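Person: Please comment on this record:
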Amino acid sequence: AHDPNNVPYDKNAPLEDRVRQSLAKSLENLQTDYIDSWLMHGPEDNWDDHFKVWRTMEAYVDEGKVGQLGISNFYRLEDVQWVYDNARIKPKVVQNRFYSDSGHDVEIRKFCLENDMEYQSFWTLTANPDAYRHPAALALAKKKDLSPEGLFYAFCMAIGISPMDGTTNERHMAEDIQLMTRLRGGEKIFESSDELAVIGETLFDTPDWRTGEEL
């Protein structure tokens, strides 16, 4: 995901130093001395290296420069569990691609809910167009005065997912802000399990998807 010619650290430095250099560059770029949430971009090749990185990150939480830690691109439940069980400072976020190849992370998301971890999704719209562009979803979106994409974001949030939104389109930004304003005002977009199932049950290529349990 990173430009190999523009990494924020010395590629030949020890892992711990790369972590320190990366955070220093982030703080510089953001013009701040504090980061709310800091994620490990992916698993290392072995657990020894993983925890070299993680222990270094934990030290910055101890110092007060970072509020919380998380992990990204961890698609095996046993790996998420191992990180959680062996970390001194537990991850508060799992950020993954939300797509059918991973079974939409059903078991990982369940583990997150059980352990007070936020599940954040990326590639949310790109990977799931069939779930919000079929006739029943389009009709429901119109009924709710939402775009189809907005309806899918609302669905994700209704089942405990925080979708990552990286749009640069001003109209889409305005739609997203309007949706969040409605939700924060207490509006419940989906009035029944049947409405929620309009989206959930169209993820047909995920055999472990259990709409009833997602409610």
